[in-house]
Each structure stands twice: as C-alpha cells, then as structure tokens.
Design brief:
By secondary structure, the protein is mostly helical. The chain has helices at residues 2-11, 20-48, 52-79, 89-104, 109-140, 143-205. The protein contains 6 helices and no strands.
Length: 206
C-alpha cells in the first residue's frame, strides 16, 4: 500500500509557485491564443453569413482582433515575455462549435442566429479575460497592458450590444417570418390535398 501511494504522489505534476506577473503573462498568452484562433475562423464565418450587416460585423471583428494581437506584442515587450505556444482550449471549444454549425445548418436567418450566438459566447469569454488582464495590469502598473485591455473591453462590450440589436431587429424577425411562410405553405398544400380527396369521394359516390 505504501509503495502504491508513493508512486501516485511521484506521478503527479509538481505544482509551481507563481506571482501576479506570472498570472498576467498567462492571461495575456491565453488572450493571444484566443485571438489567433478566432482570426483564422472569422473569414469563414463571414462568408457563411446571409445578412450583409452580420458579414460586415464579422469582418470588423477580425480587424479588431488583428489590432489586439499587435497591441499584445507591445504588452509582452513591456513584460519582457513572449506569447508562448500554449493553446487556449476554452476558446478552441467555442470556436469549433461555431465551425460545426456552418456544416450543420443551412444558410439563412437560422444560421445567422446561430453565428451571432456563437460569436457572442466567444466575445463574453474574451471580455472576461480582458477584464482580468486589465485588473492585473493596473495592480502591476503596466500601462501598455492596461491601455490595450481597456480599449479591447470598450470595443468588445459595444460589439456585443450591436450583435444583440442585430439579432433582435433583423435576424430573429427574418427567422420567424421564414417559419410562418413555411407553415402557410404546408397548410395550403394540406388544404388542396383535402379538397382533391373530397372531390374524389363525391365522384365515387355518384
């Protein structure tokens, strides 16, 4: 029993002692990975969008992401650190979810609604990460980091609100209208079938 317990202890990863600067670097590396992954998938999402306004918004988000990546370089320089190679698995899951929807849902209002939901989930994650990095940067008096995260937060919150307004004012009404049209077509087709059957029955009885 003692040997087994000792083996288990030795197989565990040794925990590291980190400070506030280490935490900030980790957060920025995760943000860098998230933005890099998002920048690669956004062009595909934009091409899949049916709404012209949504397409333009996705293209604008890519431009914002490229700017954030550039500002992160300056933040890493300020910290004398590098972006690293660690992959942000949380962002990867959100982005893969959006990518799968493109393959599963036909183009139109339904896909646009799903794309908005997917992008907002990713944006909410980013807003949380930017806020954490900003707070750590303020505590450590890293002005370059703070400025970059403040700008990202301001634009991110505004972008999220614009997506909500687009969904409420254009995408959801279009989706509901499409469903109403399909229901009316089905009802019309069903009514014609009933009338044909009734005519056939009258001919038989006569």
């Amino acid at each position: 029993m003692a040997r087994t317990s000792k083996a288990k202890r030795s197989s565990r990863r040794e925990k590291q002692s980190i400070d506030a600067t280490d935490l900030l670097v980790m957060e920025l590396q995760q943000i860098n990975s998230a933005e890099s992954q998002l920048s690669r998938v956004l062009p595909r999402l934009a091409r899949a969008a049916d709404s012209e306004k949504l397409r333009r918004m996705l293209e604008r988000r890519q431009e914002q992401g490229e700017r954030i990546l550039g500002e992160l370089e300056a933040a890493f320089d300020e910290l004398e650190e590098s972006p690293g190679r660690n992959r942000n698995v949380a962002a990867e899951g959100l982005i893969n979810d959006a990518r799968e929807h493109i393959q599963e849902v036909e183009e139109g209002p339904a896909l646009d609604a799903v794309l908005i939901a997917s992008i907002q989930k990713t944006e909410h994650y980013c807003i949380g990460a930017w806020g954490t990095a900003k707070s750590l940067g303020e505590a450590l008096e890293k002005k370059t980091t703070v400025a970059a995260m403040e700008r990202a937060l301001k634009e991110g919150k505004s972008y999220d609100q614009e997506l909500t307004e687009l969904a409420e004012q254009e995408i959801t009404p279009a989706l509901l209208s499409e469903e109403t049209d399909e229901t009316e077509e089905e009802s019309s087709a069903g009514g014609q079938g009933t009338r044909r059957n009734a005519g056939a029955e009258r001919r038989v009885h006569s």
